[in-house]
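Dear Dr. H.,

I hope your travels went smoothly. While you were away I took the liberty of generating a structure for the chain from your last submission, since the lab meeting agenda had it listed for discussion. I wanted you to have the full record in hand beforehand rather than looking at slides cold. The sequence, exactly as received, is reproduced here:
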Amino acid sequence: MKYMIILLVMINFSCQSTKGTSEITTKTEPLVFYSKGPCRGKCSVYDLRIYKDGSISYFGIDHVIVKGDLQSKLEDQELKELKAMLKRGEHKNPNFKRVLDWSVTTLRINGEEYRYYPSTVSGFVKELDVKLRKIVHRIIHNPNVQSEEG
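The corresponding predicted structure, in token form, is as follows:
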């Protein structure tokens, strides 16, 4: 009987801990994750996360104007346009074949991950890629963006 009570207590705590973890994950899961990977040359390497409330987290890694963390926020209209674009998108995963020395772009939206080269895609993925590059350009050239690096 004693062992049964201990077992029930352990099961109860394990269920509670996984429930809390899933809530944290969904709250912090970005609406869009956009990442530029390295190449053998001087390709820009950075990560961009855009959250459902319009907040932006940029992290410059290598061969970029701004290295480190930047925080910003999309304008309300820009966030509405992005959400509308994500809803109407085709969401066809482009054919991907690794090419030596090309920087891979990773795009994660709606639980789907796309790996591609911007020069080889078209349609929805290309349109979204262009929009996200413009957002990156704007936030790294905007002096009002909050930097978390010294």
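Two observations you may find useful: Residues 1-26 form one domain. The mean pLDDT is 82.

With kind regards,
E. W.
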